[in-house]
């Protein structure tokens, strides 16, 4: 069954939100706290090892009620059922969207075209487990009998960002294998990766859902050519495996069927780390940790699927984005993890969120008359405090931010962790409270400045505050808690797409780039190509050809 298509701006709740917004937009968070002693408690959701405090957002109980009404008016509940039950909710590509089935237990039942897909999901998982174990324990040897020491993931987009982010985030849990990622078609990227590798002890994992992606195939071909400079053809089967839906093209590339880890077309690239695309994760962390990651995601699936909307972390989080994006006209959101481990998290979410919800045509094919996908950016704290926090505190733009922190550090240096977390807490407090003129002046009075100097400097030292943040506090960074966190954002993306009445699971904008580059590449390689470009592009192409 297709998703319902409702223009959100035509709902009663949207209209009510608009007039409610006029009433609330200039209210200060400080005052909202003063007038409601229960606010922090009422606007915090505690679930498993997650403590999620939404109270530093510019909302009241009434805002939340209206946003929840909006979710009901666009029939979110019905959409969630369709999402989990394998309906064709990616209608523009005629596909189900079932990354949730990849982390479902063996006894689950999810039908696609009348067939339960869960047994096949678990068959592939078993293949991942067996292969991981044989590589990690040294039973799988390279062609010359040496054990594997390095794994190179060759893929781009969802076939790179998810595995790379997870392996980096969970490096504390890594085994002895050294992992590398080659994604960019920039030839210098793969050259830098292979320059110190020994082909006899390296395993290459080619990851491409379609097995047609220019970057991945170019890198795979160049790396195989480099491999064959020193190794015989028969060695390929011990050193190259592939993950794809396109089994025939993988075989044509020269990879044996036993070395292919299949995936299904109902797994979107940016949601694919739970499929065989996660093979490099399993190799790097060991199968048990990979399984825990999936279990964490499954727990979040259950929370999302079964909790009331008012206690539902992804639902509330998504509705808040809509509140800021469509009423406050905030254009971006920052993701600030207070752990260096989540260094790649915002980059990973950029694909998930912006490729999914960067759409301007609604589910009826009409141009939308409201804003959709937000810009996503961020870096870990405290580094980001010394980089871009100035603009969040005192710039002209409203930037809602998610602060993500952990109660425990992994190596247990309490002194450092207290310092790290005191920054997290202090920043969210300062962003909310700001600093008034009276506070600035009273600070000056403690110094020996003249009244004139105080008057001159005061305006620059005032912080308006009222900058919204959501605080996520998680017990500890583990494979399971990371699985929950990633799944939380996946479901947030889904909810936003439903409310905005767009299709979140295609990416025609990216595919346009693939076609354009192909035709220009032909011109770059031909001496006498007839050009059909604008003067600017032609000038660039000509300059490049004349000088390279
Ligand atoms: O970037 C566009 C995209 O289609 C992504 O959705 C996908 O993750 C990526 O390309 C890679 O595609 P493939 O896995 O088919 O090589």
Task: Write a brief caption for the model.
By secondary structure, the chain is an alpha/beta fold. The protein has 22 helices and 13 strands. The chain starts with 11 loop residues before the first helix and ends with a helix.
Main attributes?
548 residues; alpha/beta; Rossmann fold; Phosphoglucose isomerase, C-terminal domain; 3 domains; six-stranded mixed beta sheet; five-stranded parallel beta sheet; binds 6-O-phosphono-beta-D-fructofuranose
Structure description:
It is a single chain. The strands form three sheets. A six-stranded mixed β-sheet has the order 1-2-13-12-10-11, sandwiched between helices. It is built from 22 helices and 13 strands. Helix content is 48%, strand content 10%. By secondary structure, the protein is of the alpha/beta class. The protein has three domains: 8-73 and 307-433 and 468-500, Glucose-6-phosphate isomerase like protein, domain 1 (Rossmann fold), CATH 3.40.50; 100-291, Rossmann fold, CATH 3.40.50.10490; 508-547, Phosphoglucose isomerase, C-terminal domain, CATH 1.10.1390. Helix 6 (118-136) crosses helix 12 (279-285). Helix 7 links the parallel strand 5 and strand 6 (178-182). The model has no long low-confidence stretch (mean pLDDT 96). It is globular and about 80 Å long. The chain has helices at 12-24, 29-34, 39-42, 61-73, 76-85, 118-136, 161-169, 187-194, 214-230, 236-239, 247-253, 279-285, 287-306, 313-326, 345-357, 389-394, 414-433, 437-445, 451-461, 479-500, 508-525, 535-547; strands at residues 44-47, 50-53, 111-112, 115-116, 150-154, 178-182, 202-207, 240-244, 260-262, 332-337, 375-377, 401-406, 469-474. The chain binds 6-O-phosphono-beta-D-fructofuranose (F6P). 6-O-phosphono-beta-D-fructofuranose (F6P) is lined by residues 156-159, 208-210, 213, 216, 269-270, 507, 510.
């Amino acid at each position: 069954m297709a998703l319902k298509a409702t223009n959100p701006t035509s709902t009663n709740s949207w209209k009510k939100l608009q007039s409610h917004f006029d009433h609330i937009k200039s209210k200060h968070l400080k005052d909202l706290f003063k007038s409601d002693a229960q606010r922090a408690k009422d606007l915090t959701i505690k679930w498993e090892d997650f403590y999620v405090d939404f109270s530093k957002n510019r909302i009241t109980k009434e805002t939340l009620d209206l946003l929840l009404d909006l979710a009901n008016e666009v029939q979110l509940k019905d959409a969630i059922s369709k999402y989990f039950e394998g309906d064709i909710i990616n209608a523009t590509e005629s596909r189900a969207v079932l990354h949730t089935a990849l982390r479902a237990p063996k006894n689950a039942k999810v039908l696609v075209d009348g067939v339960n897909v869960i047994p096949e999901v678990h068959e592939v998982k078993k293949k991942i487990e067996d292969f991981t174990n044989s590589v990690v324990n040294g039973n799988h040897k390279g062609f010359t009998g040496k054990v594997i020491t390095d794994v190179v993931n060759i893929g781009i987009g969802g076939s790179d960002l998810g595995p790379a982010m997870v392996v980096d985030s969970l490096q504390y849990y890594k085994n002895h294998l050294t992992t590398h990622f080659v994604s960019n078609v920039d030839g210098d990227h793969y050259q830098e990766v292979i320059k110190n590798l020994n082909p006899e002890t390296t395993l290459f994992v080619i990851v491409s859902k379609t097995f047609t992606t220019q970057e991945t195939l170019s890198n795979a071909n160049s790396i195989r050519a480099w491999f064959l400079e020193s190794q015989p053809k028969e060695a390929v089967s011990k050193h190259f495996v592939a993950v794809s839906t396109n089994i025939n093209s993988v075989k044509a590339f020269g990879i044996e069927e036993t070395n292919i880890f299949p995936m299904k077309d109902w797994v979107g690239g940016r949601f694919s780390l739970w499929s065989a695309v996660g093979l490099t994760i399993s190799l790097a962390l060991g199968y048990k940790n990979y399984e825990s990651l999936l279990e964490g995601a499954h727990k979040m699936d259950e929370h999302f699927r079964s909790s009331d909307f008012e206690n539902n972390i992804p639902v509330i989080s998504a509705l808040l984005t809509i509140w800021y994006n469509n009423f406050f006209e905030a254009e971006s959101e920052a993701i600030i993890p207070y752990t260096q481990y989540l260094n790649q998290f915002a980059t990973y979410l950029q694909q998930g969120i912006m490729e999914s919800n960067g759409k301007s045509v609604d589910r009826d094919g009409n141009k939308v008359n409201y804003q959709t996908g937000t810009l996503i950016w961020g870096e870990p704290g405290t580094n980001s405090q010394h980089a871009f926090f100035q603009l969040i505190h005192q710039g002209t733009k409203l930037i809602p931010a998610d602060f993500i922190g952990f109660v425990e550090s992994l190596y247990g240096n309490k002194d450092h962790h207290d310092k790290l977390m005191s920054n997290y807490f202090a920043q969210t407090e300062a962003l909310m409270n700001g600093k008034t003129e009276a506070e600035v002046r009273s600070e000056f009075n403690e110094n020996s400045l003249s009244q004139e100097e105080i008057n001159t400097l005061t305006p620059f030292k005032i912080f308006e505050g009222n900058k919204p943040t959501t605080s996520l506090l998680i017990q500890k960074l583990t494979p399971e808690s990371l699985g929950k966190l990633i799944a939380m954002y996946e479901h947030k993306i889904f909810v936003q797409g439903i409310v905005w009445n767009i299709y979140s699971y295609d990416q025609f904008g990216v595919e346009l780039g693939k076609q354009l580059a192909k035709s220009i590449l032909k011109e770059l390689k031909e001496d006498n190509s007839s050009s059909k470009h604008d003067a600017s592009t032609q000038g660039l192409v000509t300059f490049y050809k004349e000088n390279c």
